[in-house]
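Sample intake sheet
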Amino acid sequence: MSESKQLTCEKFGKMMSIIGAAIAVLGAILIVVKNSVKASGNLTGVWKEMYDLPWFIFLLGLGIIIFGALKWKRYLGDTTSMMDTSPKAAKAFLLNNGIILALVIMVIVIAVKEHRFIQGRVLVDILAQASPRMIIALGICFTLLIAGTDLSACRMVGLAAVISASMLQNPEYPNRFFPNLPQLPVFIPIVIAIIVCMLFGLLNGFLVAKFDMHPFIATLAVQVIIYGACSLYFDLPPNNSQPIGGIRPDFTWWGQKRFFQDALPAINGIPILIPIAIIFVVAIWFVLNKTVFGKNVYAIGGNREAAVVSGINVFKTILCIFILASALYGVGGVLEAARTAGATNNYGVGYELDAIAACVVGGVSLNGGVGKVSGIIIGVLIFTIIQYGLQFIGVSAMWQQVIKGIIIAIAVALDLSKYRRK
């Protein structure tokens, strides 16, 4: 390969920092000019249609600056680490990230079609919607990393939502699930809901680890069991399968509370779901990257036989994977119930497919052993943005399903093509 087709990583980081700085300066100029126009009372036409685009440009520039600076610092003084810039490398990059690039283009099209989409308030709403799904996807990723899957995730979400909501209704609500149940501390029903999900996760892990049952079949069977059990619970008198409502404010606080509403009126504050999701993202990143358990997960996914030979307790690790994943599904279900102030036995339907698709789009391989938390974040955000955006411009729910199915098929095809090339 010729020298002209290579670039040092240090120089690449420096270039990205410069590009990011230029974009940030452009955004800052647009912010200043728009504020000046607004102050003069002539905020019409193009300036009005911009909404918060200048801020998005500015933040994009800052993000590129940070990325470039970290790259620059990491390879500072290193003249041996090179980046391949040949057409073949560019083609491989496009193939590996084609689905993400296509979805980014779709977002741009949505923003062009409906300018109101480029508002800070819309972005915050998207992040709030994505937060419970992010936690669910973090659970799914553990099962994908060992070349498995978990189809029971959706029903665990519904089960956790129904259990927690049924025990946290206002005492004056006329159709209480448990009319004589005293007012419990809010954390008790939440913990009960998560523990019940973990028991089903234990069943998943036992079937997979003990009987070497394929995770698809094992979790499909458990999914049916969970839905039946949840429906029986949901149908108990006097509820009789009626949607659970009248949720206590101290429970809905965990899904609807917004911080800094007075300080940030333009975006109506920061939803509590966002910092909760960030906490779980950091925790799972730490588990996967800084603990022996996390290293064992990657080892089993990469080569199970080699993991056994190296002394890893595969049985115990798989049990822990499914238990931890089910706990995360339970948290996601509880947050969904708190966010919507209600629950039915059909909560969470399709969430497992969305989570799997988001993980695959984010670079988690179906073949196991490959995947990063940062990729999962990207995958979940992209899917949430697309779904929110399509609703925003009035695309029917039926067409949304078609588009989502196409995205999933392309993502899986691209993932499998990587290994065929290898």
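Comment: DSSP finds 16 helices and four strands in the chain. Strands lie at 6-8, 82-84, 258-259, 270-271.
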